């Protein structure tokens, strides 16, 4: 861990290696960590803001997906409703055409 922390500091990141590792593990929700590592990382992350930034990053990435889904729903819903209304109007026009043809003949 100390070697990792030295490399992290060389790259200009502040905070402990355990805290940064905890944030990375938190961001990758599909990856499971050993219980000892997870508890140590959580304990270390309580003292630094680096994992907070990773958590915000994760939240923002999920939020953009939610926004995209909502935008798609907002665009598609009126189109589907319009298609349904057009279908109902087409069947009404067909029925009126048949009725008019029956009156003319």
How would you explain this protein's 3D organization?
With 105 residues, the protein is mainly alpha-helical. The chain has one domain (2-104). Helices cover 82% and strands 0% of the residues. The chain contains 4 helices and no strands. Helix 2 (17-27) crosses helix 3 and helix 2 (17-27) packs parallel to helix 4. The longest helix has 55 residues, at 50-104. It is rod-shaped and about 95 Å long. The chain starts with a helix and ends with a helix.
What does this entry show, briefly?
With 105 residues, this protein is mainly α. The protein contains four helices and no strands.
Topology:
Layout: H1 2-10, H2 17-27, H3 35-45, H4 50-104
Helix pairs in contact: 2-3, 2-4
| Distance separating the two termini | 93 Å
Helical fraction: over 70%
Q: Globular, elongated, flat, extended or rod-shaped: what is the shape?
A: rod-shaped
The unreliable regions are: none
Order of SSEs: HHHH
Mean of pLDDT: 74
Structural class: mainly alpha
Number of spatially distinct domains:
1
């Amino acid at each position: 861990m100390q070697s990792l922390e030295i490399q992290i500091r060389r790259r200009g990141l502040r905070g402990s290696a355990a805290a940064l590792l905890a944030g990375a593990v938190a961001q990758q929700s599909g990856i499971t960590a050993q219980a000892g590592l997870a508890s140590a990382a959580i304990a270390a992350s309580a003292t630094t803001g680096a994992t907070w930034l990773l958590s915000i990053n994760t939240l923002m990435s999920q939020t953009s997906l939610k926004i995209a889904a909502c935008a798609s729903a907002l665009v598609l819903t009126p189109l589907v409703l319009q298609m349904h209304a057009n279908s109902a109007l087409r069947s009404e026009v067909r029925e009126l055409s048949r009725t008019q043809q029956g009156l003319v003949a």
